[in-house]
From TrEMBL:
Organism of derivation: Helicobacter pylori (Campylobacter pylori)
Keywords in alphabetical order: Cytochrome c-type biogenesis, Membrane, Transmembrane, Transmembrane helix
Transmembrane domains' residue ranges: 73-91, 103-122
One Pfam short name: ResB
Protein name: Cytochrome C biogenesis protein
GO cellular component: membrane
InterPro entries to which the protein is assigned, alphabetical: ResB-like_domain (IPR007816)
Membrane topology recorded in Swiss-Prot or TrEMBL: Multi-pass membrane protein
Biological-process GO terms, alphabetical: cytochrome complex assembly
ResB-like domain: residues covered: 1-60
Subcellular location: Membrane
Chief localization: membrane
């Protein structure tokens, strides 16, 4: 081991990733090759596979799991035969797929004419709604009532519900341009904001919508009304024992961001550290759910702090 690296989520002590810089040596200490082992990036050497498993308490040492599977090559051969069989089914002249293809081609002209007749009444209205005013004209303005509603300065449950109602009613038109914004994710890939919102919201909620809001509306709500969304029970949990530790009702599968904090700080901090010290094979269902909920909490924090909105690539 040459070096061990541990990265944490911004503003948190929870580890986001960790990696080991190693050197593979012969018995006479002759260097074979350097290698970097991290999540989903394993070291293969002479039939052995080395996985990044955990790390020492002092964060200076690493724990690797080792596996040698003699069935790997037969498995790959099986996958290759499966792919060849699928290709043969697709290309067989008398096969089901080509028969369906010939049938669809015969129906293509009729389908095209039918579709053209159906969509023609809506073409002009759709074109007008889809325009984006790049010069800040009328279509670029945000209605004041969608943000400055009567309950804007209140934190009661009724006020939050009122703001959610306004978000459902007035945000869709503004999202048409906003969701096309190109941003860089934390893996370095450029994606439209719509895709980023779906990925984040699905990880946090384990569903693609919430209270009648789509993923982009949820994202917009968190950005404009962070105090509201700290109290909204949206973070999914699957373990009653964890909800008991946090102090939320056992029969409610969702918790709020505010639920995991008290006067002493983040309630799961020590538990997350303990779980990360364990080998993955030694983790029980509670341990796994702790890590999943911790990841969701950090994703919500990323949305609150707008760290995901990387318009200018790094």
């Amino acid at each position: 081991l040459k070096r061990f690296e541990l990265e944490r989520y911004a503003g948190s002590m929870s580890p986001s990733s960790y990696a080991s810089e190693v050197e593979v040596l012969k018995l006479d200490n002759t260097l074979i090759k350097p290698y970097r082992i991290f999540m989903n990036h394993v070291l293969d050497y002479e039939g052995y596979r080395f996985f990044q498993s955990s790390y020492d308490m002092d964060e200076k040492g690493t724990i690797l799991s080792v596996n040698k599977d003699p069935g790997k090559i037969p498995t790959y051969l099986g996958y290759a035969m499966l792919i060849l069989g699928a290709l043969w089914l697709l290309l067989d002249k008398n096969g089901r797929f080509l028969k369906l293809s010939r049938f669809l081609k015969s129906q293509q002209v009729a389908s095209f004419l039918l579709a053209l007749i159906l969509i023609s009444p809506f073409t002009s209205s759709f074109a007008n709604e889809g325009q984006i005013d790049m010069h800040g004209g009328k279509s670029a303005k945000i209605e004041r009532q969608s943000v400055e509603n009567p309950a804007n300065k209140e934190d009661s449950k009724s006020a939050i519900l009122e703001r959610l109602k306004h978000l459902r009613e007035y945000s869709k038109d503004h999202l048409k341009a906003f969701q096309r914004l190109q941003v860089q994710d934390f893996d370095g890939r450029i994606k439209p904001l719509d895709t980023i919102s779906i990925e984040y919201v699905h990880k946090i909620l384990r569903k693609d919508d919430f209270q009648g809001l789509n993923a982009m509306q949820v994202l917009l709500g968190i950005m404009f009304f962070p105090n509201d969304w700290r109290s909204v029970k949206m973070i999914y949990t699957s373990n009653k024992a964890l909800r008991k530790l946090i102090g939320t009702p056992l029969d409610e599968s969702r918790i709020a961001f505010r639920d995991v904090f008290d006067s002493r700080g983040y309630k799961l901090k020590n538990l997350v550290e303990e779980v990360n010290q364990k080998s993955p094979n030694a983790r029980n269902e509670l341990d796994k759910d702790v890590l999943k909920v911790d990841e969701r909490i950090n994703l919500v924090y990323t949305l609150f702090s707008a760290q995901f909105l990387r318009i200018f690539p790094s």
